[in-house]
Amino acid sequence: MGYYAFITRGETRRYCARLPDFPEVTAWADSLNAMPGAITAAVRECVGDLHPFRLPQPTPFQSLPRMEEALDGFWLLVELKASRAERAAGEDAEVALSTPRDED
User: Fold this and answer.
1) β-bridge partners, 5
2) 48-93, pLDDT tens digit by residue?
3) Which domains does the chain have, with CATH numbers?
């Protein structure tokens, strides 16, 4: 499923991502190319202890919060999904998150 992450660049020039559908998740990366993997790792770490876990329904773009405090930020769509084995086991299976780049 596609989830939106709001991307900003900090004073240290690292990129920061916050996901409204996972409010406790903050991911950091040195480049935009590394951001999808950093987001996946941060979400995995956050939900790793929650059993069973279901991915929340993604927030539609038009319902995302306005990020007025970060005028230089932008929204990035990141694909997160359960692994094939967990989908076969049913909706309540533990979720292993990945981005399309993780499956290459």
Assistant:
1) 76
2) 766 566 778 899 988 888 776 667 888 888 888 765 444 444 443 3
3) 2-103 (3.30.160.250)
Q: Please report where in the chains the tokens 């004073």 appear, as a residue.
A: 11
| CA–CA separation, 36 and 25 (whole Å) | 13
Q: Tokens 């989830």, residue?
A: 3
Show the tokens assigned to 31. 């480049």
Task: For residue 16, name the pLDDT band (cuts at 50, 70, 90).
Answer: very high
Cβ pair 4, 61 in contact under 8 A = yes
Q: Tokens 């990366």, residue? A: 29
**Contact by Cβ (8 Å): 54, 68:** no
Tell me, what's the pLDDT at 53? 65
In terms of C-beta density within 10 A (0-12 exposed, 13-18 middle, 19 or more buried), how is residue 62 classed? Answer: exposed
Cα separation values, 11 from 8, 14, 26, 27, Å: 10, 7, 16, 15
Cα–Cα distance measured from residue 75 to residue 2, given in angstroms and rounded to the nearest whole number: 12
